[in-house]
Design goal:
By secondary structure, the protein is mainly α. It is built from 23 helices and no strands. The chain is globular and about 70 Å long. 51% of the residues are buried.
Length: 448
């Protein structure tokens, strides 16, 4: 399998690199000093105040269904609660609020309602609609940066990296000097950009900037702060820096106890460190809070490694049940289901069809990677090879992507590429997954 990419992709990657370097040089950062993990800070919960505001606003719209301002504020609180709790019911409530807002006042006079609509669509994984409504918002608010936040987010998910580059350049330009949460939103997005193109160092710096800004605010936002710590931990884990990852996850949980994302990631880290019981306990805690299929599948894998086969089978069955529970779940978990099936050599054709449906709309590098892996397991080697090449095009430092590419090359008989890709995967992180990393090592040993 070749590493060559199209000239258009090369231009896109170059544009991404230029954006990241220009932005990082253009405002304060820790560019000339090593990134260090900032100490964790316990932050007070505002859940009671949020729930009180929700009750008040729900009563307002009940009494006055034409109050678009109340709908917009209510929808924003629902989305905040969804981020904090992981409950999908809040997305559905936010969707109703957005529809109520635009029904009472059209978007030309209600840009907050249009923004809420785009944010809800993004949360629902309706990225095409989120893109289109964000473009409409940018036309209505040409001098504001926030429309380009959601526009760039949606374009990244759709795999339109040239479009995302342009959106984030506009975001960066229009947000210059504003500071506060606007600066945090910019840094969060540029961090993701940098990570996608394999620039872990700049991604860390952007997240550190975002974290520093959060902590300097009079009332640091708890979930946003924990999210930054968690993302720093995931970046560290992706390149095998388990010490930093551990500290970041612990700091996320200091800021926001029971933060389900950090609990699950810390469970994965404990398993990678050989502490299966610790990993199981953390995943059990995370799945009690949020029954996310990825968490449940990972818990099943750890049960399997401990010889608890009946419990593993129960978790695997639950993954499918949740994935098919509702229409919204279908949108949200198509990719997770495809990966679950492919990882566990189950329902190869279902895995492929899920991945293919997702990829028809969402052509980002992770969509390409999922399609490549599912196509391999369903015996479609040429399609797997082509999709894997797309998944590698940005140089994302994710050991799973390189592992999948290596196994596809091995199936094709391309020993040189297989050895190279598998080596890269394991060089990034020897224990990237409790089951798949062992398969990667076994495959590589057979090539030496």
């Amino acid at each position: 399998m070749s590493n060559s990419i199209t000239s258009r992709t090369a231009c896109s990657v170059a544009a991404l690199a230029a954006l990241v370097l220009t932005a990082c040089n253009g405002r304060p950062s820790t560019k000339d000093s090593p990134i260090q993990v900032r100490p964790g800070v316990a932050l007070p919960s505002d859940l009671a105040a949020t729930e009180g505001a929700v009750r008040f606003l729900e009563n307002r719209v009940r009494l006055d269904p034409e109050d678009h301002i109340a709908y917009n504020k209510l929808g924003a609180y629902y989305l905040q609660l969804q981020r904090e709790t992981g409950s999908l019911s809040y997305i559905e409530l936010a969707s109703k609020a957005a529809k109520g807002s635009l029904a009472s006042l059209p978007p030309e006079h209600n840009t907050d309602g249009l923004l809420l609509t785009a944010q809800v669509e993004y949360a629902e994984h309706d990225f095409t609609s989120a893109r289109d409504h964000s473009r409409q918002l940018a036309e209505l608010e040409p001098g504001k940066s926030y429309p380009f936040n959601t526009l760039g987010d949606a374009l990244l998910e759709l795999g339109d990296y040239d479009g995302a580059t342009a959106a984030f350049q506009q975001m960066e330009r229009l947000a210059a000097g504003i500071g506060g949460m606007t600066s945090v939103a910019v840094d969060q997005r540029l961090a993701r950009y940098a990570a996608l193109r394999g620039d872990v160092d700049h991604a860390r710096r952007y997240l550190d900037n975002a974290l520093r800004t959060c902590l300097a605010l009079p009332a640091p936002p708890r979930e946003t702060t924990a999210w930054c710590y968690w993302q720093l931990g995931d970046l560290a884990f992706s390149v095998g820096d388990n010490t930093s990852a551990d500290a970041c996850y612990q700091n996320a949980l200091t800021a926001f106890p029971d933060y389900f994302r950090a609990l699950a990631s810390l469970g994965r880290l404990r398993a990678a460190q050989g502490d299966l019981d610790g990993g199981i306990a953390l995943y059990e805690q995370a799945t009690r809070l949020v029954p996310d299929p990825a968490f449940i599948a990972a818990l099943g894998d750890l049960y399997k490694l401990k010889g608890r086969d009946r419990e593993a089978a129960a978790q695997y069955g639950l993954v499918e049940q949740i994935g098919h529970l509702s229409a919204l779940n279908g949108f949200l978990y198509n990719r997770q289901l495809a990966l679950f099936y492919a990882d566990h050599d189950l329902k190869a054709e279902d895995a492929y069809q899920n991945a293919r449906r997702e990829y028809e709309v969402r052509k980002d590098v992770y969509g390409s990677d999922t399609l490549a892996w599912a196509a391999l397991k369903s015996g479609k080697l040429k399609e797997a090879e082509s999709a894997a090449k797309e998944a590698l095009k940005l140089g994302t430092k994710d050991p799973r992507i390189w592992y999948h590419a290596g196994m596809i090359a091995l199936a094709e008989g391309d020993v040189t590429s297989a050895r190279d890709y598998l080596n890269r995967s394991l060089e990034l992180n020897q224990q990237f997954d409790p089951l798949q990393a062992a398969l990667a090592k076994h495959a590589l040993e057979g090539l030496l």
